[in-house]
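The following record pairs a protein chain with its ligand, FE2/S2 (inorganic) cluster.
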Amino acid sequence: MYEKIFEKYSPDKENLIYILHDIQDSDPQNYVSEDAVQKVSEFLRIPISHIYGVLTFYTMYSTKPRGKNVIRLCESPPCFLKGSEKILMQLCEILNVKVGETTEDGFFTVELCACLGICGNAPAMMINEDVYGDLTDEKLIKIINDIKRRA
Ligand code: FES
């Protein structure tokens, strides 16, 4: 199952974060499973504990199944000062979830994250690989509806 990913890399532990990225991106539930960790450990010949250390250090990784679309709202101070708290409340209300939860249809997971690097456009969020700034209630609804429509 992970052979195609392993073929792209030499069995070097420097490749760990890239391999974990590819595994997570290729998983329909957007996470790195126990089985994947085991296989990576065998491929790179590094301890499982080391891999979990990396997985828990970087917030972009998840060891739990998530929705098809992962929404990560920035909670750093510049975004907070520009109203990210209100955006978060609306997001959770629209999707009927709490932070860290996945919608019943498995379509969205809501998470918080640190600065996305576009503080000038705060408040900001990232959905999968796309970054959205200058969020307002209206813009948020439009983004969510557009993604649902594209599904
Ligand atoms: S603080 Fe939110 S994008 Fe930088």
